[in-house]
């Protein structure tokens, strides 16, 4: 089941952001334009984070901590950070590119940690 907050972020980003903006402020439109792509990434980020947290927690409960640490290192530094850099700077996506990279690292960690659990069981 899709987490409710992630679904809300994905389906109604403008409405959520407008709750925190002053409609009389002329800069509100610029803030909205910058924030909507970030909220869409946050929806994906929440799902990936939940999956990696479950995988890490299950492995921790099985007293398996060394391999998950290596998985996290690889996922965040060798997958997430390079993707964040390439998306943000060479491809020009700026802040959403950084967050897509971080979400990619979380997704890699989620897949690898849950795969590790399935292999151990």
Short description:
This protein is mainly α and 121 residues long. It has helices spanning 4-11, 13-18, 28-61, 66-88, 94-120. Helix 1 packs antiparallel against helix 3 (28-61), helix 3 runs parallel beside helix 5 and helix 4 runs antiparallel to helix 5 (94-120).
Overview of the structural elements:
Helix content is 81%, strand content 0%. It is built from five helices and no strands. It has helices at residues 4-11, 13-18, 28-61, 66-88, 94-120. It starts with a helix and ends with a helix.
Q: What is the chain-wise order of helices and strands?
A: HHHHH
Strand content: under 5%
Largest sheet: none
The assigned structural class equals: mainly alpha
- Uncertain residue segments: none
Radius of gyration: 17 Å
Average pLDDT works out at 95
Taken from the alpha-carbon principal axes, the silhouette is elongated
List keywords for this structure.
121 residues; mainly alpha; 0% strand
